[in-house]
Specification:
Blueprint (H helix, E strand, L loop, with lengths): L7 E7 L5 H13 L3 E7 L7 H8 L24 E4 L2 H6 L9 E4 L12 H26 L2
Parallel strand pairs: 1-2, 1-3, 3-4
Helix pairs in contact: 1-4, 2-4
Length: 146
């Protein structure tokens, strides 16, 4: 008989907690909600980006009601097993979490909010980053949760 493993806590960090970390949050909740309690935060939170929400809706994941959170919302409140930074800025200023023995991982993704051009061209950048995040997170799940 196989022992049931406890659900692990993961924090996805980005600068604004409006695009990349929100898309990663939605993807992880969709892909591994049975294995992970997913949290996301930013170093300088901004409202959830509408194009990020649209890119996620294209694959049937709704993040339009998500809220942006500050890293400090979680310090000393939640014991994390994993902390993943998805942009270089967040990695550089990610605070120390007292008592945390979390595995810290980093993979920088382009900031889709910097995309230029028509709304369709901008959306295509969000879709590309979403798909890159999905590939990274599927590998993360395979490497750390199976």
């Amino acid at each position: 008989m196989r022992e049931k493993t406890k659900t692990k806590n993961i924090l996805i960090l980005c600068t604004g907690n409006s695009c990349r970390s929100q898309m990663a949050d939605g993807l992880l909740k969709h892909l591994a909600s049975d294995k992970l309690n997913v949290y996301s935060a930013g170093t300088h939170p901004e409202p959830v980006n509408k194009l990020a929400a649209r890119a996620m809706k294209l694959i049937g994941i709704n993040i339009s009601q998500n809220t942006s959170n500050r890293i400090t919302d979680y310090i000393e409140r939640i014991e994390f097993d994993f902390i993943i930074t998805v942009c270089d800025n967040a990695r550089e200023i990610c605070p120390y979490f007292p008592g945390q023995n979390a595995l810290r991982l980093h993979q920088s993704f382009d900031d889709p909010a910097k995309a230029k051009g028509t709304e369709d061209k901008q959306l295509s950048v969000y879709v590309r980053v979403r798909d890159e995040l999905k590939c990274y997170l599927i590998k993360f799940i395979s490497d750390h949760l199976t």
